[in-house]
Amino acid sequence: MRKNPMPVFMTEDAADPAECQVEKVDEDGCTETKTGLDKFRAFSTVFCNLFPVWIVITAATGLLHPPAFAGVSTKYFTALIGALMLCMGITLKPSDFARVLTRPGAVMLAFAGCYGLMPALAIGLSKLFGLSKSLTAGMILLSAINGAQASNLCTYIGKGDVALSVLMTTMTTVGAIVMTPLVAKILLGTVVPVNAAAVALSTMQVVLIPIGGGMLVNANFPETVQKVLPFSPIVGVLSTCALVGAAVAGTAGPIMSAGAPLQAACALMHLLGGAIAYFGVKSFYSEKVSRTFGIEIAMKSSAFGYLLASLHFAADPLVRVPSAVSIVWMTLVGSSLAVASRFLPPKDEDEAIAA
Fold it and tell me: Taking Cα atoms as reference points, which of 137, 144, 130 lies closest to residue 259?
């Protein structure tokens, strides 16, 4: 079968030779006829290559016409994130996590980047753009939260290490129980409590159970999983777009009122965070790990930051605005990095050069 020149999600061994129908055989060989599944794989590739475009359209719709997402209330967020993580789970095997756990250095670096690099960028950019004390506090709070679950999808699209991404996200999410209040106390002089039980329950519901369920399905029904894999990234992209649209629609007012300096500060925090993380580890880790690291650091759980700001800075509504603005920029930067990475296939490197 001729190779598709476009980047694809499927590995080469995922194609089923039986799907190729021989139309005719002559002295020049056989002429191949694409099946419906082949065409859908091509559609899936194109659809996911346009991920940033779908994010822009979704965010614009949420901003300009919030009622369009009235049916996607916060009670559906857990299910949507769970669907996203299930799509990632079916691509993984226990051996993937066993391999990742042999390189704890990468996970520790991601933890340091999440709670060290990003707060430093938040302070620097807030000063650079002359943000008010309230907006600066919002930037710092945003920078001190865990990584976003959508980073796992972006890592998958960007041909990174999905198992490593899941582990990084899980560790920063659990770490938020201690690190978010600690960073807020050190940099803002106030305690921002994080409900440990709620974080643990959410991690179980939206990360561990869907990922574990997907791995279980992959282990017991591998042939079926190979057939549904072309649908997986599409479901992930649609789930992410629904989440972004609903979150933006719910914070349309603050986002629209944010000035250009805050927009630039939020965009650069995510972009510079990803770039510094990627190039900072590139000399020590493989391309696959490096792009995973960059995407993970660039993406923050902005909706969680908005929730914390709303709960603990109710007297100063400006504190929540950076997290609202970040919802758009975080997803746009992450999806753009993912799609750009797809067109730069990693070299055949087994593992990190150094752990």
Answer: 130
